[in-house]
Amino acid sequence: MAYEQQKRTEEHFFYTKEVEEGQYRDRSRVSVRKGRIAGTLAAGITTLSMMMCGWTTVPAGNVGVRNMMGNVRAEEFSPGFTLKNPLESVVDMSTRTREIKEAMQVPTSEGLIAGLEVSVLYRLDGTKAEDVYKKLGGDKAYEENFVAPTIRSTGRDVVANYKAEDLYSGKREEIAQRMAKQLETEMGKRHLVLEKVLIRDLKLPDTLTKAIVDKMSMEQEALKMDYTLQKQAKESERLRVEARGIADSQKIIAQSLTPEYLQWKYVETLQSTVNSPNNTTVILPFDTKLTPMLPVGTHK
Questions:
Q1: Domain map of the chain by residue range?
Q2: Which residues are bridge partners to 22 per DSSP?
Q3: Angstrom distance (rounded) from CA 192 to CA 63
Q4: C-alpha to C-alpha distance for 31 and 38, rounded to whole angstroms
């Protein structure tokens, strides 16, 4: 009996232990399930919150204009990730430097038609993007509806102050500067920042170009002739001055050639000839007064 009692006690002990271990394993599984459920709920709540609030990403070099059912907000979104109202749409507008190329026909001051090609570099003032969007539209819209027409109008206004030959000569930089000054004012009113105006080409009709080249060649020839004439005039004046000096010198010398001076000079020359180691015979015509018979006239 004692042995059977002890055996039943051991069986009960092991059964109880197995039950407790099973319950522990069940509780562990329940805890894991609860943790997973909690994580799933948290992720779902976060996702739901983001879906309810909305979010957007503005690319680098852009600002985001906020449009709430036709009402444009004054505050733009900066580049990067941001939350927004789910009913709010965001329009990206570039603040990078943009280039627009325009080719146009422009009149000169004489009424002739010239071809003008320009490149304009500009950018949007990001702090005023919402105002540009409200009044002019997005990037493509304001460039087509405002920037391009303003460039064409400015080109016609500026070139109309110049003659055709000015366009062919070295006044392109001056034209570019005047266009830049006028464009800077007009574009600044719309919160667009002008950076540079580049004249790519200025074309005139072939016949007009040939006429201008011929005229410029003739002007160069005329300038060359004027220079030659001025040079010859100065040379003639120099020769007159030189001749006048020679004449005056000869007159002074002739006035100093008196018979007494010539006789003294003659005797001096004879003496030096006699004393010369290369003594030679010199025969000169002279009168009884030993005055050389030279054609010395009387000068007044």
A1: 97-204
A2: none
A3: 14
A4: 10
pTM of the entire structure? Answer: 0.56
- Please state, in angstroms and rounded to a whole number, the distance separating the CA atoms of residues 282 and 203: 87
Three-state secondary-structure class, residue 258: coil
pLDDT in tens, 23-42: 545 555 545 565 666 667 66
- The fourth-level CATH superfamily of domain 97-204 is Band 7 domain (3.30.479.30)
Interatomic CA distance for residues 185 and 252, integer angstroms = 79
φ, ψ for residue 146, nearest 5 deg:
-130, -55
Residue 219 structure tokens: 């002007």
Q: Residue ranges of the alpha helices (H) in the chain? A: 2-53, 129-136, 139-142, 148-159, 164-168, 172-188, 206-256, 259-274
Token couple for 97: 């430097």
Burial letters 146-176, b for 16+ CB under 10 A, else e: bbbebbbebbeebbeebebbbbbeebbeebb
Q: How far is CA 100 from each of CA 73, 147, 172, 195, 217, rounded to the nearest angstrom?
A: 29, 8, 19, 12, 37
pLDDT tens digits for 115-163? 899 999 999 999 999 999 999 999 999 999 999 999 999 999 999 998 8
